[in-house]
Amino acid sequence: MCPRDRRAGVHAARGPRAPVRQLRPAPERDAPRLHRGGLPAPPGPGGQTIAVRTTDVRQLREATVAIVGLGQMGASIGRALIGRRACRRVIGVSRKTSTLRAALRLRAAHEVTRDLESACSRADIVLLATPARTILRLIQPAATSMKPGSLLIDVGSTKGIICRQAASIAQKTGVRFIGGHPMSGQSGSGPLSSDPGLFRGRPFVLSPVASSGPSDIALASRLARAVGAIPILIDPVVHDQIVARISHLPHVIAVALVLLAASSGNSLPFRLAAGSFKGATRVAAADTDMLTDILLTNSRATCSAIDDFRRILLRLEKLIRTMDERRLVKLLVAARSIRSRI
Q: Which residues, in sequence order, are CB contacts of 327 under 8 Å at separation 6+?
């Protein structure tokens, strides 16, 4: 068992607690150029995304990071930060005792607590790594507990609604905010499914808001690189439109395929199912609370993607029904060519 700090309700790993240092402002040369409104300047045609390159990690090394939510995502971030000695200290926050104990055992945190306000008040960077609707409930208490000038980052799967709410609250509290979304994951849930190499070489979306300064973006970019990811700046609305098509819609399709196969009323379809069905429906086994949060917090973009998918499906149906081999083959070849380049 780990010793308990009675003042803050904190379970601490062995060793003396490191003092918290106030962060110094990051040099602005480390941050990408911004255009009006605090969003990244267009790097070329479209101007929707830009990769961030920073190498100076001195400021992150001085930081105490609080990770709220120690599931697969939060625990993986904590394990990567500690494994690389990227920051001064990691405080893990969760409501479940079993999760807190697992986080300590996996070295996903130096210390753990159920006390959100205490952890946030001591942190220089706070990461909200819970399902999206829980993030929306946690922004206010987290921000009001944080030191003015400290940085709040979420890692939810949707960005528009979270960034709008967080930007408003951050402006009132003096806290800095940047939306985040590591584009990585694997089967399983909870800290036991975590992996410190989960983000290696994967995009880590950062969505600044109007008040996000160059030093905030630079610090968030350092954190993304510290866990092995590649930080990419994307507008929150653009992010939601993209992930609706490449992530949220595929989840909906996977669920529909499973329900379709089950509609026969017997187990024969599943006994015959091979690689194509199992591969296409893998994400239907995802955590239902997480998937519900994703779909309901990005409903507009997801429904738009469903409409577009329906139009393509109807087009394919027409070609199959009318036996239009030439046009059908043309679409199949186009899809195969595009898929081969992914």
A: 319
